[in-house]
Amino acid sequence: MHVRVRTAERVVYGTWAADETIQVWTDAPWLGGRETGERLAPGTYQLLAPTLPSKIVAVGRNYIDHAAEMQATVPVEPVIFLKPPTTLLAPGGDIVYPAQSRRVDYEGELAVVIGQKARHLTPEAAVAAIWGYTIANDVTARDLQKRDEQWTRSKGFDTFCPLGPGMVRALSLEATLETWVNGERKQSAKLQEMVFKPPVLVSYISQVMTLLPGDVVLTGTPAGIGPLQPGDEVHVRITGLGTLRNRVVAQPRL
Fold first, then answer.
1. Cβ-contact 178, 187 below 8 angstroms
2. Is the pLDDT assigned to residue 15 strictly greater than 70?
3. Is the Cβ–Cβ distance between 190 and 4 less than 8 Å?
4. Rounded distance, CA 178 to CA 217, Å?
5. Which of 65, 155, 217, 254 is the most buried (most CB within 10 A)?
6. Fold classification of 56-250 (topology level)
């Protein structure tokens, strides 16, 4: 699994082995990085979000059952919105519950990592532009989303996009996505239940904006969304990708 980590001296990309050692790479693999031969021992590094994107493009209502629970129609074309890169949160990091909100929800999702510049691609060409896959949590201040009637504030708080722990090059849509809160399963769906599959999403977005290497596309969440509270532990799991773990904390008083 490909990861991005911080040591005491630097931030590096690498591959994460079963024994939790890291094979260090010269750069991100989609930027021509290669193995250096150096290894990091367990306990000498901290996992970071596995990519540092110029933008995060998210997709709404991409599962039929989620559209139903939101009392919304299934879109005839992808519904896209942006989350700023400052929403990124490392595996194990704390999701900060903002003081402005009274309802913050989890949304477990598959994330696509772009590996090459993508502009005006067909779905067939978009397959080659997808470098790999990781796990995301599209954290949302649901009350603010309803109040604002658009999604920038509700989706854009710092720490509202946990991402990781690592990336894989290929992933079957037979894989299962699950979200667990305090040990209780809240969401469960096959990735194949998506209305628009990843190549279609990347193609559609590329007609609007240029996707750059390292950019992230969030592919939508299935039914079962619900609220989080400070102190909660939220885990998002995808078969073949492991588990993204984060804790919720209250925003510190100023």
1. yes
2. yes
3. no
4. 18
5. 217
6. Fumarylacetoacetate hydrolase; domain 2 (3.90.850)
